[in-house]
TrEMBL record:
<feature type="signal peptide">
    <location>
        <begin position="1"/>
        <end position="22"/>
    </location>
</feature>
<dbReference type="Pfam" id="PF00593">
    <property type="entry name" value="TonB_dep_Rec_b-barrel"/>
</dbReference>
<keyword id="KW-0798">TonB box</keyword>
<feature type="domain" description="TonB-dependent receptor plug">
    <location>
        <begin position="58"/>
        <end position="158"/>
    </location>
</feature>
<dbReference type="InterPro" id="IPR039426">
    <property type="entry name" value="TonB-dep_rcpt-like"/>
</dbReference>
<keyword id="KW-1134">Transmembrane beta strand</keyword>
<comment type="similarity">
    <text>Belongs to the TonB-dependent receptor family.</text>
</comment>
<dbReference type="InterPro" id="IPR037066">
    <property type="entry name" value="Plug_dom_sf"/>
</dbReference>
<keyword id="KW-0812">Transmembrane</keyword>
<keyword id="KW-0732">Signal</keyword>
<dbReference type="InterPro" id="IPR012910">
    <property type="entry name" value="Plug_dom"/>
</dbReference>
<keyword id="KW-0813">Transport</keyword>
<keyword id="KW-0998">Cell outer membrane</keyword>
<keyword id="KW-0472">Membrane</keyword>
<dbReference type="Pfam" id="PF07715">
    <property type="entry name" value="Plug"/>
</dbReference>
<keyword id="KW-0675">Receptor</keyword>
<dbReference type="InterPro" id="IPR000531">
    <property type="entry name" value="Beta-barrel_TonB"/>
</dbReference>
Amino acid sequence: MTTRIHPPSLALMIALAHPALAADPQPAAAPDGDKPAELRAVTVSASALGVGSDAMSTPASVLEGDELVRRRAATLGETLANEPGIHATHFGAGASRPVIRGMDGARVKVLADGAEIMDASTISPDHAVAVEPMLSERIEVLRGPSALAYGGGAIGGVVNVLDRKIPVAIPERGVEGSVELRGNTAAREAAGAFEITAGSGSIAVHAEGLKRDARDYRVGDDWSGGSRVDGSYNETETGSLGISWIGERGYLGIAWTRQRNDYGLPGHTHELEDCHTHGNHLHCGAHDGHEDEEEHDHDHAEGGVPYVRLDSERWDLRGEYLDPFAGFARLRVRASHTNYGHDEIEDGAVATRFRNKASDGRIELEHQPLGGWRGVLGLQSTRRDFSAVGEEAYVQPTLTRRHGVFLVEEYTAGDWRFEAGLRHEWQKIDVDSASRDRSHRGNSVSVGAVWNFAPQYALGLSLSRAQRLPTAEELYADGLHMATRTLERGNPDLDAETSHNIDLSLKKLAGPTTFSVSAFHNRVSDFIYAHTLDEHDGLQLIEYAQRDAVFTGIEGQVRQRLNTMFGLTLFGDYVRARLASSDGDRDLPRIPAHRIGLRLDAHWQGWAGEVELYRVTRQRQVAEFESSTPGYNMLNLGASYAGRIDSVPYLFYVKVSNLTDELAYSHTSFIKDAAPLTGRNLTMGVRLSF
C-alpha cells in the first residue's frame, strides 16, 4: 500500500528537521503509596498552554498511572463512563464513545496526543473509536468548550489520549517497558498488551501491541432476550512502531500504527428494510402488496448477526523544539495521516463499505511573555475524503477541507489567573452527487478567570461563544441506517450552530476534605439535531434541522478523609437538555439520566481497594418517539496490590462490577433494549513494568 504524504505534512517535517531537537517530557505521575489520594494538580497537555488542572477555568480531569490501569475497558467510552459528567454511547461491546454533559458525536473531539482521531465514530454510534485504552499512558478530559486550540465545534469537550508510541526521552537504563494480561468472566475476555522503548545516544525506538478476544457478554438477571447479548463479541489486534531523534532542545518522531477489529452489531435487523418515504411519512412494504423476494429475502439465521471488520492504518508525526527563534519559547507540531476503512458484513458478504482517508496537521508557537501575557498561536488543517458504498450507504461520498487559526493567552497577577482564546475556522465540503457543495465559516472566543482566594481553594469562571460547523453527514445523509433503526435525510441548508456558555467551578485540592464541583449553562442557537418526522415499528424517519437548545447541569465529587487508611467520596452529575419549540419546549433524545453515588476507598502499604455504589435514576424526560428508561443501582468492588519481584514493579488488580447482577439499560444507547449493560463481571489482571 502506498501512503501519500500531503504537502502540509511534508512542509512540517522539513521545518522540524533540525539538528538541535531535544526532549521536554511531561513529569512522571507520582506512584500510588500509603498516602490517601488527593486532588493532585497535574499538567494538562490538551490545554495548549500546558497549565495544571487546578489552574484551569473550566473542569479538567486526568486518568493516569495505577488508577487508569484499574479503570481501563475495551472501549474509550466504557473507560471514562464513571467519571462525573461523562457517560458512554454503548453500542454492544465493540463501539462506545464518550458522552460529555449530554453531548456526543462531533461535539466531543477525541485526540491522540493533540492530533485528531480520523475514524468514522462521529458518523454513527455503531462505529468504533480507533484508539486502544490498554495502550494509553494517560487520558485527559476537558469539559465544555475549553480547548479552542482543537476546534470551536468541541462544545461538549475534548478527550486527549496520550500514548508512548513516539518516545520523547531516552530511557535511563537503555530499555523500559511493560507487559499486561487481563481477563473477565462476563464476556470470557482474554487480553494481553506489551510496550517497550529502547534508546541510546540521540535515537529511541518504541514497539507496542495488543490482542483481545471477547465473546458475547452476559447481562443481568431476568432479561427477556436471554442471558447473553447475541453478536456482542469484540476481537482486536493492534500494533505500533515508532522512532524518535532526541537532542537537547527538542525531539522529532514518527510512528506507524495498524489496528484490526472485528465486533458484532447487536440489534441489527432487516425486518424494515423495505420501508421508504412518502413525503414526510414512512411507508413499509412493497407498493404492490408483495415483496421482491430475490432482492429482499435475507436469512440472518444462517449468517449470524452482522459484524464490522475495521482496518485502520495511521502515521503520526510529533515534534517539539525549544527556543526556535527570537521571541518564541517553543515550537510544537502534530501531524497524522489515516487510511481508515470498515466493512459491515452480513451472511458472509460485505453489505456496506466505509472508507475514510484523512490528514491532520497543526503547528503551535508559544511566544515569550509580552506585558505579562503568555500565549500560543497556532494553525490547523484537516482533509477528509469519506465514502460509503453498499446496502446502507446512507451518507454520500464527500471531501471535507477544514482549516483554523487560533490564539490562546494567559495572564497571572497575584492570586488571579486570566485566560482568553480566539479561533477562526473555515471549511469547504465537496459532495459527489447532484447536491450542491457548501462552505462555512465560524468564530469562537472564550474568556476565563481563576481566583485562588485561599490556600488550596480555587474558584473558576469561564464565558465562551463557540461555533460548530455542520458535518458532511448532517448536510448530505440520505438513506436507511438499520444499525440505529433510522431513515436519515440530510439538510444542505444548515448553518453553523452558535453556543453561549457559562461554567462555574469550585475546587479544594488538599486537606481532609477535597472537592471539585462545576455548574454549567449552555444556550445553543441553531442547534443541529435529528428531527423525527415519523415512526413505524421502531424505525424513525429523521431529518437534520436547526432549533435553539439549552443544556444545564452540575457535576462533581467531594472526598472526606476518614483516617490515614480510609476515605469516603460523594459523586454525581445532572444534565437537562431542552429544545425550544413554537408549541413549547421539548426534551432532546438520549440525554443521560441523573446519577449519584458513594465510594469508600482504602490504602495500606501496597494495597488499595474501593467499594462503590451509585444510583442512576429513571429517565422520564424523553423526546418524541423515545421511550423512558428504568433506573438502576450499581455496586462495584475493587482491590489491587503494587509490589516488586526483585527490582521489577508489578500491579495485580481485581474488580467485580455489577455485583448484584442487576439488569440495567443505558438511556444514551440507540440499542438500549437490544443490548443492556453488562451483568456481574469479575475482572483480573496483572501488569509488570521494567
